[in-house]
């Protein structure tokens, strides 16, 4: 007995489309439905182990049902383009997954499925029908099981005849009779007016079929039902006919000719999954496929040695050194790191050092042994040995904390992947290999890690050429690669914290939270869980009868937008907003920072260089870039950050309006450039232009509104959003924006041109050629496209600002080293650099940082940086 699985293609694609996120590749190809379909197929194939898999699709040609009934399926919404473009893709995928595709003009996929299942039953085979359409339940029998998907395609329920009868109280074939009576709005099948699902089931359970119901209609006690059955008897019979799946369609199928396991083409699937950016599916390849008939030969790893004891390391290292090319010595470093919560830092789980001929796996117990470090330093500190790595910053930091100052790093594959496509910066080396080299078979276990380590040489060769072709040589070699060492030094340096003050804040914040709780309970007239949206909703909208702004599936919405809309309605709303703000700052920044303090009294944040698509740096474990400054209590938190010792102070230097200056430069707008070059305040200048008044007549409110317009334009703000921000009418906001564009015509032209460029190329670039791919801008969906347009407008500006601050960091670091100063960079927050400056170097450092930041890059206007000094970050 064979097992046949039949997939209802359109149904599963439809389910997967609406049940999965709308994934889009960088080329603009939608893939969410394909992704969901494949995941379901892999899972079902693994669970059921079918001998054959067939997928039935509907044809575009009309079926016999359309010919008999013109209104059949009329009124159905047209298939979204985002789904339609995925059908050719799934067909190609199925071909390489050894899945036969069947479709016949004049018949629906259901009829193909019905016919195939009937033929298989005749031959004594077992059948599984995979569908999201409950119509197929009529096919359930002893040998045919219908697998119905629920919740997209993530959950299934399997019906045979007995399970169907147990659940519905009728046989699967009687399900057609139920449809005949109740109709089916999704297919525009009429049924009998006035008979719903409950009544239809009741009648079929009692009479057995539509024909019997009509034959014994006089015995039906429900008057209106009886009358409608008489009036619409022909409709009932015809509706049953339309709902019946044909089981003798002209399907030319010989089960012995179905594609078997040998047709499964993993190489082609790797290629396809790589193009579709299915990284997790690349990793799964093989898990859902049939067992191969002939095993592929394993990749042989030659010249690999494992070192488990520190005393064995010197000899192993000597062997590795001897394998180096004397004229062009290269070593690749590959390691696994893990965050150690006890130490608030990352540590290395294992390390692989490899030449093209020899590889050395250093076990974790050796890495933590101080006796092993001199042997490691022989290679790592030798600047004459060129090194390739994957995420070298972590290597610098971890080795640096153990006293090894690594030198000679010429290439970082992770960093190159990020610059070539920002989405790839998040991938592990294994995932990146599966994407770029899908034909590779990565061995399991240690052999696999050695294989990946050696693959770094291959990546280096390909990425080096791609860097030149993309025009990012300077960005990579002069900015991003040197920055890895600077960021590592900042991580090691850390930021000193006043623990006593942090403890005082703990007491203060708890008292503030308790006080706000009491005030809220007094205003509510009772105590309740303020953190429970459900309980809060009852208080606000039932007890206090405040207007309901928005409802969710679970009750009333009490999110920030709702509270913002209600804050003038009752004083309790303002208190709740304060309570949430104070509680969040307390839990995230008071409790969170306390837990992150290391043994040396400093917080050693981790700086992420390859995450943000804009090119910006981010900070984690903990995030020091996101300490809120909007609220006074948030700014207060900065008081706990102090210099490293009594001989130091903090110096902060940040760019003035860098994004607007970048906009003026790349838009070549004469009005904006004139304002900046003459030292006129740009917001006052904009207010003067937009409101058509002299500079000296601009009021503070006008300047504030102009500031909102200036920064809003950078982010592609709409008139609606601006009206909300400024509390003005939409018409006024629209007039502001139109007047702005009239006064700054080159800005308008630039924003229009950059959107067209993004649509044409699929990406935008910064002043240093940093790319950001924006497939959303080519979308048919208006909301997605609008988001893509905003990204296209803003990314070159924000990305160029990120380029500039990174160049400044490199130049500041070089200047500090050149002058042999002991002061050091310790934090970057977007447009601001913070240094721990020695008091006897203070004036030199202030001048140095300001000069390097203002001359980081050459623009058509002057960059301005403002420095300040303090004994806390708050003061600085």
From TrEMBL:
GO molecular function: 5'-3' exonuclease activity; DNA binding; DNA-directed DNA polymerase activity
Name of a matching Pfam family: DNA_pol_A
GO biological process, one term: double-strand break repair
Keyword terms: DNA damage, DNA repair, DNA replication, DNA-binding, DNA-directed DNA polymerase, Exonuclease, Hydrolase, Nuclease, Nucleotidyltransferase, Transferase
Domain 5'-3' exonuclease: 2-261
Source superkingdom: Bacteria
Keyword Transit peptide: no
Enzyme Commission number(s) of this protein: 2.7.7.7
Protein family according to the UniProt entry: Belongs to the DNA polymerase type-A family.
PANTHER family with a match to the protein in the record: DNA POLYMERASE I, DNA POLYMERASE NU
NCBIfam families reported for this sequence: pola (TIGR00593), PRK05755.1 (NF004397)
Quaternary structure annotation from Swiss-Prot or TrEMBL: Single-chain monomer with multiple functions.
Name by which UniProt lists this protein: DNA polymerase I
Organism: Proteiniclasticum sediminis
